[in-house]
Predict the 3D structure of the following.
Amino acid sequence: MAKILMKGNEAIAEAAIRAGCDGYFGYPITPQTELLEYMSKRMPELGRAFVQGESEVASINMVLGAAAVGKRAMTSSSSPGISLKQEGISYLAGNELPAVIVNIMRGGPGLGNVQPSQSDYFQATKGGGHGDYFPIVLAPSTVQEAIDLTILAFELADKYRNPAMILGDGSIGQIMEPVELPEVEPKPPAKPWALTGCKGREKNIIRSLYLLAGPLEARNIILQKKYREIEAHEQRHAEFMLEGAEIIIVAYGTVGRVAQTAIAKARDEGIPVGLFRPITLYPYPKDAMSSRTDQAKVFLVLEMSAGQMLEDVQLAVQGKVPVEFQGWLGGRVPTPSEVTEKIEEMAKKYVK
Amino acid sequence: MPEGKVVFARPEALEETSTHYCPGCTHGIIHRLIAEVIDELGIREKTVGIAPVGCAVLAYHYFNFDTAEAAHGRAPAVATGMKRVTPDNVIFTYQGDGDLAAIGTAEIVHAASRGENITVIFVNNAVFGMTGGQMAPTTLPGQVTTSTPTGRDVKLAGYPVKVSEILSQTTGAAYIVRRTVSQPKYIRSCKKAIKTAFQTQLAGLGFSLVEILSTCSTNWGMSPIEALKWLEENMIPYYPLGDYKVIDEVKALP
């Protein structure tokens, strides 16, 4: 198949269309706006629903409505907008409704800036809104991977009746790369729970309200069981030069790519370093990471944040080897030479 | 024995169950009217209702058709998402004045402005019911509530929001009327309006809303009969009953 040049945001939009997205509901915010613009043109052409909502809050609740009637629905935004969507994401999780949410992260807190950042990791992976729940979180590091993970996000959302989030940084949204757009034959599962009108069956109710503690606890136990199942079956990661690596870099998204360049250079210098790149941030690929503690002298976590994924690495490594960290803040993207310097520092400290 | 003829029965669209509503509450009447209209229009099997946050959150226990719950104020957005992807179904929201006129003002104004082909049943009882009688945007000047203990002081708390008047100014709205259920004659008129609102949607004419002045005797601290009297003497003068916007295509409906 011929490759074409596409911007990350537009590629995610096209992937969603190919995955059978029936309804897109969004609100403009940099650096994800091209996604909304692409949808505004293509969805009506295909006879599918597109609404530019009056707010992020309204848009996520439109997604909830479309999901509740059994359709594949999606929204996209960037950090401050995702904060507003947390209400709806919590309700999606509580109602067990499948939906795809794209967060093309920018610098924060507050209005921050529009530069690439990874500082929404906690918000994305630890629930984000109120209540005990987890969205499935997928982190692409190239435009091609953004396409593939968007298609996967729709599949996983339907499979587990759970919101799924694409967590990309501003670079992933804005960069242009050659990609292959796969032909997809969407096969959403039957949704007997959907609000399609009660013709020929008992009425369906979609709700998250359980007034008494007993029934709400029972409801939460069902949700928790589902999350354990997701954790058991959906952990994903990629490896680069991990064979024989004594310094294991853990980085996702754009930082993972920058690290690869630095790792290749360090390997040329004879430093035993490799990359463990999480693809699912929830469920965190902790099993594969834990299995690497025997070979590692140190884990080095690199993030465009003040150290958020760091905590998940510490939990996976369980104190068996040291975990070091370097972060870049405020929308600054690390250069390969900055990573190389850090690798050399780690080699001096840990590799004899 | 002579064969009897059924002249009055529970609508199929209403479950055979008792409600949690307080004695004297008018939600029960309004639920019944909606159910009767849905039966009469023969649309029960393609109707999806959306319950609000507030006293009517449990409406899905009482209606006998598919129903969802929305976050506080978001029902018009949820309805928009539903209607856009299943346009052949009948989608309506059931919202109180805290839900619709406070936290949900953005959603209702824009759903109306977009001319979303949905129906809204708006129950205005001038108070937050479920949380125990706090001031709502629709609380009247001077009205005592648990958060305006000396009466609503408009210098501090502003003026009541007149939803039908505001929404009648949106170009996208097709049918905006205010009714009440305080007397049988008003109940009959209210049912007719609810029917017209659903017919507006079935004809694809756009956004329809029926505002219904309602009582909350518990939180008003009155007997049910006193509450109905208070509604007529205080609410109707501030919120006049009437048709606020009816486009010609709706007037022409059979």
DSSP finds eleven helices and seven strands in chain B. Residues 15 and 61 of chain B are 7 Å apart (CA to CA).
